[in-house]
Amino acid sequence: MSSDSQAAPIPWYRWPAVQIRRLYDWTIHWAGSRFAVPALFLLAFVEASFFPIPPDVLLTAMCLGKPKRGLLYAAVCSVGSVSGAVLGWYIGMSLWSALGTSATCPEFEGGAWMFEHIPGFTCAQFSVVQELYRDNAWMALFTAAFTPIPFKVFTIAAGVFDVALATLLFASAVGRSARFFLVAGLIFKFGPQVRSFIEKRFELVTLVFTVLLVGAFVALRLLH
Q: How far is CA 115 from CA 61, 101, 132, 185, 192, in A?
């Protein structure tokens, strides 16, 4: 009898962590390919405007694989993310009404497709972002760029609520660069220990990250 047929079925509550672990292993292996750097730029670009998966996953994998190139990877990730932020701003500035008006929050006069299809894109969060921009647009953008709060909500909202492009560029460049270079620097210094910790306690790491992400959504509601 093969080992596969003898393997015990995976409990339902461990299935998400197991699938994420498989993705992690695949990414670590793939991150060393000649297409890794373009893929990192593309992931950072689309995440800043509409894609739900953060580029930190691939950035971390690539830095673990080649720690000495971490600063280059962080720079590529930063440039891609800031470029994507400009696309998000353009979507909010010029394409927002063409996306349809949401029945649940018609006061925003557009963006229905975003509200219906993009995780983390909700009427309540968009309303909070509007208030944050009224108080201090630069600080709101910097906070979103540096933390797990969904950045795409802020970049698109910046266009909708007429935040200056210069403000978006400066805050995004500072926040995203600080975040990605911090990741690269920590892995350069503690890379082997970080990788060993992740691989030995992967389910715990997954749980902690999920808690942090949920906490970021809650913080988005409470910031104002």
A: 31, 10, 19, 36, 41
